[in-house]
Structures are given as C-alpha cells and as structure tokens.
Amino acid sequence: MGILDGKVALVTGAARGQGRAHAVTLAKEGAEVIAIDVDQPAAYVQYSHATAADLAGTAKAVEALDRRILTRIADVRSQEQIDAVVAEGLETFGQIDVVVANAGIYTQANFWEMDEEMWDDVQDVNLKGHWRTMKAVAPHMIERKRGSIVLTASWGHLPAL
Q1: pLDDT tens digits along 7-43
Q2: pLDDT in tens, 38-57
Q3: Residues 78-122: pLDDT tens digits?
Q4: Is the separation of the CB atoms in 34 and 96 below 8 Å?
Q5: Smallest Cα–Cα separation from 134: which of 70, 69, 88, 86?
C-alpha cells in the first residue's frame, strides 16, 4: 500500500526523463496517472524531443506497477489542449489530487544572446505552461477543498565566469 492509494496524479512532460520518473514514482505510491507530453520538436531546442513512443514507454512502466494511466499528446502552450486532458482525466478517474507541472524546454543559448522570440518560446512552455496547467485543475481542487500542485523548473546553463 502506498501513500497515494486512491489518488490521481496529472504529470506534464511525462514522456521521459524527470517527467517519466515522477509518473512512475507516483504510481509506485498507488496513484492512477494522467500523463501528457508533446510529439513534435520545439523551436530553438537542439536536443531530441519527446515522442508518442516515449509516452507509450511511460504508460508501460506505470501499467507494470498495476496502476491505470491515461496518456495524451498535448502541448502546455495550448490552454484548449490542457483543458481537454483535464476534462477527460476527470471523466475517467473522477478526480485529480496531485498535479506535477514538469513540462519544460531549454535552449543552449546564453540568455543575453537570445532574441525575444526565443525567450518568449521558452517562457511559453516553462512558465505559462505551468500556469495553464494549474489554471485547468485549480477549480476542481478548490471545489473539493483538496489537492497538491508541484512545479518543477530548470534553467538551461550558465557559462563559467
């Protein structure tokens, strides 16, 4: 028995890496999981992007723990997509107890060398994506008077000075 038995967790950026680790850990603790990620490259990102196959790998890892998982390709840059996944998750599981807003990108550019379009793209995923995710789930959590939201973030790299 885990500390999250009977709970449902939504994880963004869940296809691989830190997001997959969050989804699997939540499942190990007993949570059912709603996992989303993109299946397309992001502008200015110079590393390989998440794929539908990666998200299927997360599903397989969660199902191996005998937990249910709902996976969807969705982009945190779209409130409509996030709202649709939250609505489907609520219909499927009846509740969302935990949100881990983990989706994020980074560029390998120094911030002082970024143009405004590059900066905006990073912020649209890393900052506004978290806001959109919280915005989609908060009314449900407020109505239930319970829930936890965890935000993760990273900043690409800082050069050695």
Answers
A1: 999 999 999 999 999 999 999 999 999 999 999 877 7
A2: 998 777 777 888 999 999 99
A3: 999 999 999 999 999 999 999 999 999 888 888 888 899 998 988
A4: yes
A5: 86
- Reading the block at residue 65, the tokens are 């723990």
Q: What structural domains and CATH numbers belong to the chain?
A: 8-151 (3.40.50.720)
Q: Residue with structure tokens 């840059």?
A: 77
Distance from C-alpha of 93 to C-alpha of 71, rounded to nearest angstrom: 13
- As a whole number of angstroms, the distance between CA 100 and CA 10 comes to 6
